[in-house]
Amino acid sequence: MIPSISASKGYSDKDNLVVLSKTDDKFKWFEKYLGTTVNMKLIKKAIEQETSHLTFLREGRIIILQFIKHSDDEDIMKEYARREGFEVLEDLRRYDVSQITVADETDRELAMSYAEGMALGNYQFLKYYKDVEKRKHPLKKIKVAKASATAVSRLKIILEATAYARDLINEPLSYLTAVKLSEEIKRLGKESGFSVEVFDKKKITALKMGGLLAVNRGSFDPPTFSILEWKPARPKNKRPIVLVGKGVVYDTGGLSLKPTGHSMDFMKSDMGGSAAVIGAMYAVAKAKLPVHVITLVPATDNRPGNNAYVPGDVVTMHSGSTVEVLNTDAEGRMLLADALHFAKKYDPELVMDFATLTGAAARVVGGHGIAYMGNADKTLKEKVEASGSAVHERLMEFPMWEEYSDMLKSDIADLKNIGGSIAGATTAGFFLKHFTDYPWLHFDIAGAAFLHTPDTYRGKNGTGVGVRLLFDFLSKY
Questions:
Q1: Catalytic annotation on 258?
Q2: φ and ψ at 429, to 5 degrees?
Q3: What's the mean pLDDT in 269-287?
Q4: Model confidence over 233-260: pLDDT tens digits?
Q5: Which residue among 82, 112, 144 closes a domain?
Q6: Which member of 108, 258, 381, 383 is catalytic?
Q7: Do 134 and 208 reside in the same domain of the chain?
Q8: Taking the alpha carbons of 140, 145, 150, 155 in that order, is the dihedral positive or negative?
Q9: Domain count, the chain
């Protein structure tokens, strides 16, 4: 998990301390806590050399003077603060610091972002190690001086939700089957306050969710379809916002088998979309946001065993549309399509789906952003993009040109499940569009959901991308 975070009225001369400072400060306030006259020559030299922070040890405590690189863009400044919060963790571990207070002596209100980067950067998934206690990072508590208790409480919720999403992504199939995922959803619902209904295979079959059932045919484990709902007494929205998350708990590619190295070996992460919407739902309910939100999570693994669906099959979907399957590794869109059609029953104000859907999207934006597309109006897209910038989960919009729909035409069915060798992320989105008749946005998080090398506070492996974006958007809705 992550360190606990709380607000404090200020800071004392006994605290381990990180002080965020402007580079043009006189640093007179710093002398009080350092216990000696500040060496201005040393500080000026550090600033000239663009040193990010200076670490001082005094009488058994650590004091860190932190400089934040300047930008006129407030969102970029906050991202600089998050990254610096991560960078200082190395010093805290070196000196075995278990508790730290973050104080802001700038005029930019960056302490919260700094604490956010520090907390997320300190995340660990240690469940399967034998020597857990030895591996644990020492930092247990972060205090934010002179911060609003309400703001810190909300940040704590966001951090917990992101950590839960990371945990889900990092869990292997040996634990996190589709059934177990539904149990984890129930646990988080009980903890935060949202309600949960889970459809089993019998109910899914009765509803004729052909896409989800087709993908599940190769598995020994049954599928699930989870419905999460947060409905406060007086929601701001008259009709619900519906979130949909791809819950492929493991993807071999089916009979269109993936190669093992650098592909199948990390496909436990193919439920990153479901982790994003589950984490967001936890945060929404825990924070008691005045927004009516429903979340749909179709879940299964995709294997080549049993009576697995094959390239060339025709599948009748929940909507009644028929799909010619030309690649069983294009499975996420099959179960998402059933969920998107199911969402129509709620007469939604907006539907947002999150999925690790295509390698094509990852090749365009890498791990640095999210590809998205949809038919929602321009104003709403601008708000979503603003939230993406605010939490540094940036969005790149892909086109919705009608020519792409021609690439999904089938010779024997209503449409086929792949569009060809080009524009794969866009044609995947167009496939999903076929099952919608409401304002809709599709987010392909394939590049950002699981990282193979460490990236500052986002870490390595599951990132929980999408949780902070969704919470920021819904909190401002």
A1: yes
A2: -65, -40
A3: 98
A4: 999 999 999 999 999 999 999 999 999 9
A5: 144
A6: 258
A7: no
A8: negative
A9: 2
